[in-house]
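Team,

Forwarding the record for the chain on the shared tracking sheet. I've put the sequence and predicted structure together so nobody has to dig through attachments.
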Amino acid sequence: FDDFETGAGDWVADNANRGREPATLWEIGSPDPSVPGGPAASFSGSNCFGTNLAALTGLEVLVSLTSPVIDLTGQTAATLNFAQFRDIEPGFDFGRIRILDADNGDALIENLEELIDDRSDWETYSKDLPPSALGKNIKFQFYYETDDFVGVLFPGWYIDDFEVTVPSR
């Protein structure tokens, strides 16, 4: 479980292709309630991760946020849970949740979600992991991409209260 209240920890933001102005970064902190359409606050506590906490997302963005290693060796079932707020241009911009193999150079195991877009206030996301992710050391990657349509900017994607659960034995 990570509620991000103690900082980024071992989470890694790849903001190399942060796009055109305003540049878009995965960043940790408190959302700015003055961003039009964005969240007024984190889901819980003070901090969350978001694609620009104080501005709308920019154009031509390809950024990702990768979790620390999660040890699922010996596990036959697991569930990903987190809170998300999203305001992403439907049909043009999107988020994706990738499962990476931490023992194999972060190779892609599978996309858990292919297309996250549209708008929702804070909501809880929960999904069982596929068999391909079980019995391994994995990472999750939250990937965010925007198009190049000038004048069409959105608040983006925010994540809080990340947790992976396994059934008790």
